[in-house]
Amino acid sequence: MSINTDRIKPTDCGIQTFLDDLINHKYQIPTFQREIVWDENNVKELWDSIYNFYPLGSILIWKTNIKLQNHRYVGGHKITEENLKLSEYQYILDGQQRTTALLTSLMGGKIEGRGDFNPTLYIDLTVEDNNSSEDENYKKRFLFWNEINDKDGTFRPNIGKKKKFDEGLIVKLSDIYKNYSKIEKNIF
To answer: Could you tell me where the DSSP H helices lie in 29-115?
Structure first.
């Protein structure tokens, strides 16, 4: 009996490559996975880890020729075709919460059961680091639209943040990825 030593092996790719592969039907999420349970703070903590270059943990992918029943959408984004037939399927067994958080915070979407909540994430470029391992500035650094929208000046707690947004000091994370040089130019 021989042992197949390459059955479990780590690979790596960038966030955008992983998300592009997800959108392009490379990965599936089996229906036996639990529903999305992460809240806004979990998403902000994930992006704080990315911001600080901390490890994110792994995403466990099972490669098999077995076709399982799977979710067709993640965060409102279609990730599979109904009659998709492949010689090998790749199922996300661990990391669905992180995957959904990354996908929706960068590309928007919908979280089932969350009504009008917009999961697109913004970053306040004026929030400074305090160089502490217990830095909770991420709560101010990473914002969702409901934390910025001042509803035409009628929601007073958000007036300052909306002003920063209008000045280009609070930006979508996706805009940094797509137009970094433009964002950098606006800041200076």
So the answer is: 40-51, 96-107
The answer to whether residues 21 and 104 belong to one domain is yes
Provide the pLDDT for residue 30.
87
pLDDT at 1: 47
Helix axes 15-23, 96-107, angle to 10 degrees: 90
Q: How distant, in Å, are the alpha carbons of 40, 46, 57, 60, 149 from that of 146?
A: 11, 19, 29, 33, 5
The model carries a pTM of: 0.83
How many domains does the chain fold into? Answer: 2
Q: List all residues 6 or more positions away from 134 whose beta carbon is below 8 Å from its beta carbon.
A: none
Amino acid type, 111: I
Rg (CA), the chain: 19
Residue 183 has a pLDDT of: 79
